[in-house]
Structures are given as C-alpha cells and as structure tokens.
Specification:
- The structure is a single chain.
- The chain is α/β, with parallel strands linked by helices.
- The protein has two domains: 128 residues, Aspartate Aminotransferase, domain 1 (Alpha-Beta Complex), CATH 3.90.1150; 233 residues, Aspartate Aminotransferase, domain 2 (3-Layer(aba) Sandwich).
- It has 15 helices and 13 strands.
- It has a seven-stranded mixed sheet with strand order 3-9-8-7-6-4-5, with helices on both faces.
- Helix 2 crosses helix 12, helix 4 runs parallel beside helix 12 and helix 13 packs parallel to helix 15.
- The chain is globular, with a radius of gyration of 22 Å.
C-alpha cells in the first residue's frame, strides 16, 4: 500500500520500469570469482571489478583469518581517537612504497577517499576543473566543497586550457580527472594534463580506482604508467577492485596527506577499516610487489576477449584497458541482451542512463585474471550467438 507522501516515488519507479531503467540486482550465492552462483546456477562472471581474481584468493583469505586471530575484527573507533592500529600504519607504508609516493592515507572506500579529499582542499571562492565523464564520487565531492566546478570536454586538453583561460578570478585551483574511465575503458591523457596543471599553477588530482592493480608497472597505477611520480600531488585509489578487498587510499604529496589526516571528514568521523580488511589489503600489495603474473594474465585475457568480440562484429568502443564496453545504444535492448546472456550462463549486466548518457547503453564486460582460456571461449560463443539472435551483429 502506497502512502500519499511516497506516491511520487512509486510513480518514478514505475516510470523506470517502463523505460527499461529499473535496476535488477542479482544476488551472488558463492565467493566472488571467475564463476559465481546466482539463483542456484553457476554463471560465468563478467560483471565484477575483481580484475586480478584476488577477492577469493587463498593467500588473501588466509591473511584475513590470521589477522582476526591476532587483532580481532573491528577497530572500535575513528582513526583519530582510538581506531588506528599498527596494521593501518603498516598498510599505508606498504601502499606508499608500492605507489612510489611520498605518503599515503587509507579510507573506508574509494568513494569516501574522494569525499575526504576535495572538500578538504577546495572551498568557496575556489575553482575546480573536472572532466565531464568523471565518476559520481568526484561530482558529489565537488558539490560538497562549495567551490565552483567547471566541466571540460572529456579527455580534451585543448578544451581544458580554454576553460582555464576563460575562468573568472578564483582562489585555489584544482584539476581532477578519472585515470581509467570506468564505463568506456579509456585513459586520461594525464601527462598532457600534468603539463597544463604546472603551467597554470593548479593542483592535480587523479582518481585511479580502475587503474590500481591494472595499469603501470605491476599495477602501480596511471601515475606510474606515465612516469609522473612527484608531479601529480593527489592520487586517489580503491582497494575494492583489483586488490579484491575494500577500502580507499590517497597517495602523493606528504603535506596534502597530512592535511587529510587533520581535515578529511570520513577519516575523522567514520570508523577505521576493519582488521581482516586491512590485513587482506596488505597481502594483496605483497602479491603485486612479488610478481606481475596476475596483471599480465589480466591484460592477456582482455586482449583475447576484445579481439574475439571485434572479429564477431561487435562495437567495443574506444577502450584501451581490460574494460570492454559492448555498445548497444538503447537501454531496453541492453537489458534484453543482458537477460539473454544470463539465460545462456553469462553474467554481464546492462549499463544505461543515468550511469551513461541516453542512447549509449551497453554491456560492460569486466575481464579478470580469474578467467581461464576455456571461460573466454565459452563467453565469446555466447555473445556471438545472442548477438546474432537479437540482430546486433550479422547472422
């Protein structure tokens, strides 16, 4: 029964259903891996951000269990009161070393890392130059900061220059961009953006959520990929994707990191990462430091999958990373395509508005080092069969 005060919500939900935009949330009944169980069926998993297959790796599980035995589960407080354990400090030290950065601070998620950083650095009277396709957490963080935000054309350094030149007088200035754009799989031209930031005396921040563990030497991220160590002041990342656990990080300039310890609101007002999460993240860093095997396998799998999809006639957009968007256009088509894939044993969700623009709906395929050669062959065969059946590619 719908109350009069919530009728508008029911109406909006009905409209989403009619437009094919209502999210259908699948429930995973197994560990996160290359194959998962949904509704009692084993499915090939091409949905998760589990790039390196670490979410269910034996070493990660063992590290979490051992930490619980040694330190318990919960930290019991925010970091600045009583929530900072030696494990937190050690993780930050390891991450700074891995990222080849001066310092590092961790948060409860990549989203909260952004929410901590931008409002702590920018305020009323300041100006933020933000890529038009930046992640929602960046958009929300810019709004919270109360600084004026100017959007520049996606990955267009010339437009960024024009926007800076045309900007009104402002106090502090910041350029912020995703590193790997999660819906399209393309890279920000960070080297050229860095040149612009230095030319105009602006802070530079990159959200490398989908670059951590993926790009750069051994997965060290986009700053490492472009060799920009010491030139990008703020590198935000996540520990919930390639690292297979949960949490966020900000690495870079030592002064900025210390300022976030003093003024980053999620650091000050939300309890610290749990003990098993921290230990699991440390083990993931150790694994990436020891070997590039998983990163290499991820890129090999992605190349095989992308080549197979393009050979079948699919439009895979402009991705240069393991994210492979299968461009379909309309939301309703993407939803039907996803359901047919699911019927055939492939879990690959449709992405539509408002996550991507109207008319740009797609199946976003997330490749993983957890997939075998047989997994890739099976998935490609299903995509081709469904694509022909639905008239997306030629039969």
């Amino acid at each position: 029964m719908t109350d009069a005060t919530t009728k508008w919500i029911a109406d909006e939900l009905a409209a989403l259903q009619e437009q094919g935009l209502l999210a259908n949330i699948r429930i995973i009944e197994s560990p996160m891996d290359g194959r998962v169980v949904i509704d009692g069926r084993e499915m090939l998993n091409f949905c998760a951000n589990n790039y390196l297959g670490l979410a269910n790796h034996p070493r990660i599980r063992a590290a979490a269990k051992a930490a619980i035995d040694a330190r318990g589960v919960g930290p019991g407080a925010v970091r600045t009161i009583a929530g900072t354990m030696d494990l937190h400090v050690e993780l930050e030290r390891k991450l700074a070393e891995f990222k080849r950065a001066a310092d590092c601070i961790t948060f409860q998620s990549g989203f909260t890392a952004n929410l901590a950083t931008i409002p702590a650095l920018m305020g009323k009277g300041d100006l933020i130059f933000s890529d038009e396709l930046n992640h929602a957490s960046i958009i929300d963080s810019c709004r919270l900061s109360r600084a004026q935000t100017v959007r520049y054309t996606h990955a267009d350094v010339d437009d960024l220059r024009r926007q800076i030149a045309a900007a009104p007088a402002y106090g502090r200035g910041l350029i912020v961009t995703d590193g790997v754009f999660s819906m399209d799989g393309d890279l920000a031209p960070l080297d050229a953006i860095c040149d612009v930031a230095e030319e105009y005396g602006l802070l530079l921040m990159v959200d490398d959520a989908h670059g951590e563990g993926v790009v750069g030497e051994g997965g060290r991220g986009i700053v490492d990929h472009f060799g920009l160590h010491g030139r990008v002041q703020i590198e935000v990342g996540t520990l919930s994707k390639a690292f297979g656990v949960v949490g966020g990080l900000v690495a870079g300039d030592r002064t900025i990191v210390e300022w976030l310890r003093q003024r980053g609101r999620p650091f000050l007002f939300s309890s610290a990462m749990t003990v098993p999460d921290v230990a699991a993240c440390m083990e993931a860093v150790e694994m990436l430091t020891e070997s590039t095997e998983l990163v290499d396998r991820l890129w090999s799998n992605a190349a095989i999958f992308r080549a197979g999809m393009e050979a079948a006639g699919f439009d895979t957009g402009h991705s240069v990373t393991p994210i492979v968007p299968v461009m379909l256009g309309e939301a309703e088509l993407a939803q039907r395509f996803s359901r047919r894939l699911f019927d055939e044993g492939v879990f690959a969700m449709a992405i539509a508005y408002p996550t991507v623009p109207m008319g740009k709906a797609r199946i976003r395929v997330m490749n993983s080092a957890a997939h075998s050669a047989g997994d890739l062959e099976e998935a490609l065969a299903v995509f081709e069969r469904v694509g022909k059946e639905m008239g997306v590619i030629e039969g």
